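Data deposition worksheet. Section B asks for the primary sequence of the deposited chain exactly as it was used as input, without tags or linkers unless they were present during the calculation. Section C holds the resulting structure in token form. Section D is free text for depositor observations; keep each observation to a single sentence. Incomplete worksheets are returned to the depositor.
Section A, Depositor: J.P.
Section B:
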Amino acid sequence: MNEISIENVGPIEGLNIPVPAGGGIVVLRGRNGSGKTTALESTDRLLGNKGARLEPTDGARKGSVDGLGARLTVGRSVRRTGELEVQALAGVDPMAFVDPGLKDADAADQRRLQHLCGLAGLTGLPAAFEEVAQTCGLDDLRTAQLPDDPVAAAGFLRREAQAKARAVEEEAQRRRTAAQGALDALGGAEHDVEDLPDLDGPLERLAARLQELKGHREQRQRTGDRLQMLDRKIAETRAQLQAYEAEREEVAGSLPPAEDPAEEERILAEREDLLVRRSEQRAAQEAHTKAKAARGELEVCEGLEAEAAEQRQRADGFHKALFEELREVLPANLRVRGACIQAKKEGRGWVEFAELSFGERVRMAMEIAVRTCPENALFTVQQEAWEGLDPTNRSELNALACEYGVVLLTAEAAEGDLVAQEFQDAD
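Section C:
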């Protein structure tokens, strides 16, 4: 078993921290101000992580943190020598997954996804992004200006795909409004036009007869005018009376017989009736055509709305692809849906991760950190996080750490001086 030795650092005059070879949890216990936080910060600095400033104990010229193949000399500055014999969880804080420090739920989940990618060592864009982008009708990823961060890229692509879905929805709404307006404007004036009689033929025949009657009338008018002229000539010149009378007799003999005025009135009335009926018929046909077009447009709208819904589902494919990349390091009761992180809670099913209690979130964050650590790794866990876990979760987390060969160093408030002890299940 290795150990970390701390001497003359802050309130700690001397402390040995065991580092079990097979993994597990080591707990710093002591009263407030005994040095638990200093011990955690000293270990972080030994592992190469940035942390709070370390100072020697009052009255001591120097302090030291020694173990795992490396050594810190704490004086006016902190100097590190040697090479670590264990792996460190460098640059990633599991507690940032518990609480990213953002009020907006969506932004918080985005930050959690970024921390998950950091824990899993995921860099670059998953190959599945290109396939999802093609199904969403987006440009080739090789030419798109995408962020290097896979979470930011997934969010960008999802927003672009959803923008296409919104455009389709807006087009469907515009066309639906126009089609419904056309139906409303008809006001029930639509009729069945299949069995309407043919009125064009009778109207054409009546128009021809009216034209014929008009010709007769015009001929009579012309003939009457000529007779009047001849009468004037007879009055003006008696010398030519006989010739004119003979001509008159000849012209009078060619005069067509008078038409029955009642027939023309009847035809005009019948024609007016047919014109009214044809106008109504054409209005009914037009209403039928408009209604048919409006119904067809509504069917198109349904198709557009279905296409928009499918596009929104395809837009979620980017985060699904990201989830597949992270699946191996996530607990079975954690998943990504859309851009949200969800956890399965007994009796409630899947809920938003942020709805879990602090202890539940800590449990999952620690499990992910352990799963992503290489074997023979060590990292520290804040006292607040450890104290938020119930005995069952503490035991399960210790068993998981042993299974993966990872050591967790944490702390809890207790009576007495500062000590470091391996975690033991309560009897």
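Section D:
The two ends are 25 Å apart (CA to CA).
The first helix runs from residue 36 to 46.
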